[in-house]
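Appendix B. Worked example

We walk through a single record from start to finish. Start with the input: the chain for Fe2OG dioxygenase domain-containing protein, Durusdinium trenchii, length 635.
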Amino acid sequence: MAEYLQSYAEALQERLEPFPEDEMWDSTDPENDGEDSNSEGYRSESSFEDDFHFPSYEFLGSVRFRKGYSIPSLNYSRMIALSFNLPQVVGHSLVGEEIFTLFLDQPCTSISTDTLISAISAVLGADPLSLTLLSEGVPLEPDQMLGDALNAIAVRQRLDTGPPVLVCERRSHNSPETLLGRPCHVDVNLNYFPGPGIATIQAIPETREFVTRDRFDSWMIYTKLEVLQYQRPSEKRCRRDLLKPRGFFPRAPAWSLPDGCQRWGHGADVWSATFALPNIKRLMDAHAECTADRPIPRYQMIIDPNQFVRHTEEGPVWVPCEFDVDSCGRAQLVGGTRSHQHPDLARQVALPILEASLPLLAKLRRPQLLLDRRRLQAVFKAQRIILPPKVGEDHESEYIGMWHVDGHREDVVAVALYYYHVDSALEGGDMEFCGREPLDVLAIADAGHNASSFDKASLKKALVDNKIRCRVPICEGTLLVFSNHQLVHRVLRMINKSGSEASRDFVALFILNPASTPLVPSRCALAKQQMLTRTLRPSGLPPENIQAILALAGILPTEEYAKELRNVLLSEQLKPTGEFVGRQQNVHATGNGCVTMVGWLHHMLQESQPPSWDYPRDFSPGWKHFRALNRAPGK
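Next comes the structure step. The output line below is what the pipeline stores for this chain.
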């Protein structure tokens, strides 16, 4: 149990995978960290020429590749031993843990390597090309028959872990001013990072292409308010990097994915599967009938986190549940009767949904989560979206969502949604996602000439062909898991085709960032309330009188106050949390040029936004099409 409660920084340092000794480079050597300003790896701030292969790199829009210093490679695989008792085939890990069981309706003499690989890939949800069948350690040919030699058969699975996630710390002596091409300086907000020497920063090395085809070896850093991107320095200037890589993020658990599991988009952390959890609808419907809480016409709040908050200096924050997750992907709700305001529903609803979500959460990389043998905090919510009946042939009852990220003062890193009821009369309502990464940096004058290349065709190619946007169809039983740090999302137009009221009901689990300071959990927030309730109960007071005493003591808010505060929080949450705009306050150009970073901007970062943020419309033919991303979805 102590391992579950170990601080995040300590657990990460113990579990991170160090770089291979033959792939170490000077920037990771703590004894040679570039303090000598005369060394070759430590250049003056004005010596940026080494960050470009060609001296002609004067402008954005040169459409050439800017290469950064090399990063160690990462390849994972696992061995699965097979035991045959036909028609049953069981796969075990090398320590004897059962990984899968499958059934073959063929005699062993007619089983080929391809047949067995196909069956294993189906049960694992893995790409067949990632599997190699071995007999006594020797790979078998694809069309080779297994025959009777089934005693020493194993399968090697190459694990697709996606791009490597590096654990980094911030250097103490380097400037937060970084580059994206020679004329563009990006100011990184150091408030997003822990202090120097604390290695908890996740950074993904990625060769990223802008809409206008500029390509950079970049660091991608996913945070609550924005996605940070800057150019990784050249080999000669690697120790001038703001970040110092320390190792690879611990390997994600290889929990078996459910049948029909699917990833959406290209490079997007969006995963879905279909589950039948019939008890959830019965439990949620009974609770919804008891509370009958409809703060606005289209919403019925079944479990409302806005009515279970804790007051802080920054304002009200949600109170999370806690779950202990073991190495096998099983979860246990922490706190007993103090696990939530509605502990039975937390145990019977939130817990099974979290367990079903864990294999999908383990697939997230932007950022990656430390899940196994850890205590996880999640905020429990259940809601019903209600569409009134259709009135006449020319009037359709509709619901349209807006772009947003979840959480306000809370650091929600990922979201799991389970749709336990979708009326058959509803059409549409797909969930749409779009990346928060910068789409481009547009430059004019001395800074470059790519603003004119930001046109409708190039933008469409980036959004559609590169799948920066994606949409996921929603049906009853859909389990949807996605990164809240990487993506904004919205519900596309949903209409009710029937003459009666229809609804779409779901449970949401907002996974809190384990790298952030933990929030006060339910088991602590409810401790005083439960203690005084137990003290007063032997007096024979009726429950409503006990509730009144707790309210007068300031321990329990009155129902009227809780709903009044809920309405204030809900009005904040119903507003868009940002928009797709140009941003100038974190980028600047050298010389007389002008640069603008283009992409999603969280409203909390707009306080100093200049009134001229739309100036690229005069130079970029695709600007109005880019700004159209902010419009509500049409018919």
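Two observations about the output. The chain has a mean pLDDT of 85. The two ends are 53 Å apart (CA to CA).
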